[in-house]
Amino acid sequence: MINRKVAYDDIYINDKLKDFKLVDIRENYQRIIDEAIKEKLGYKDFLIRLIQTEEEGKRKRLTEKLTMKAGFDFIKTLDEIEYSFNETINFQKVKELGTLSFMDRNENIIIIGPPGVGKSMIATGIGINACRAGKSVMFFNAKELMDKLSDAAKKDTLKQTLKSLSKVQLLVIDELSYLKMDKEKGGH
């Protein structure tokens, strides 16, 4: 009789956690129960551990979703960059930019330098930090962005395209130096 009740309880718990979209608690609650018993956790600490598990899982999924949606050419965090390859990189400045404080101040940043010094890697790393902070990011090659805007203008959807771009919290435009606009795209 007890085994039926345990099986019913597990089904009920799984169904309700699924209904409430508590994915991480549903996938981990038995392990957390076992740990709580082993560690002799009180009810409150057990509940906190359940909530933290769900919170961490949701944050991870949001970061993955934002990172995929951003359209990065490659994924490289600021911590993964080998800064010693270019001694002109101001590591402290990059680290400060990685805190995203410029976004809080509503400032724009421009990373300049000759080809091959790591500008794209740094911009991507900053963008990934923004995704990790739950911010929406779009990464564009400058030519691709100009093509997108030009196509939108031709289709008479430029206003909608600009409106959707204005909702993005961090817009990263890479390869500005390679941008060669023709007269139509340049607005002449």
What's the oligomerization state? Answer: single chain
**What is the total number of structural domains?**
2
Low-confidence stretches: none
Major sheet characteristics:
2 strands, parallel
**What is the approximate shape?**
elongated
State the strand order across the main sheet: 1-2
Mean pLDDT: 89
CATH class of the largest domain: Alpha Beta
Q: What is the CATH homologous superfamily assignment of the largest domain? A: P-loop containing nucleotide triphosphate hydrolases
CATH topology label of the largest domain: Rossmann fold
Secondary-structure-based class equals mainly alpha
Name the CATH architecture of the largest domain: 3-Layer(aba) Sandwich
Helical region count?
8
Strand content: 5-15%
Helix proportion: 55-70%
Using the CA coordinates, give the radius of gyration: 24 Å
Write the H/E string, N to C.
Answer: HHHHHHEHHE
Number of strands: 2
Measure the end-to-end span: 82 Å
Keywords: ATP-binding, Nucleotide-binding
Organism: Alkalicella caledoniensis
InterPro entries: IstB_ATP-bd, P-loop_NTPase
Protein name: ATP-binding protein
Features:
Rossmann fold, single chain, 2 strands, ATP-binding protein, 188 residues, two-stranded parallel sheet, 8 helices, mainly alpha
Structure description:
- It is a single chain.
- This protein has helices at about 1-20, 25-40, 45-70, 90-100, 100-105, 120-130, 140-155, 160-165; strands spanning about 135-140, 170-175.
- It contains eight helices and two strands; from the N terminus they run H-H-H-H-H-H-E-H-H-E.
- Strands 1-2 form a two-stranded parallel sheet.
- With about 190 residues, it is mostly helical.
- The protein has two domains: about 1-65, no CATH class; about 80-180, P-loop containing nucleotide triphosphate hydrolases (Rossmann fold, 3-Layer(aba) Sandwich).
- Pfam families: IstB_IS21.
- This is ATP-binding protein.
- Keywords: ATP-binding, Nucleotide-binding.
- It comes from Alkalicella caledoniensis.
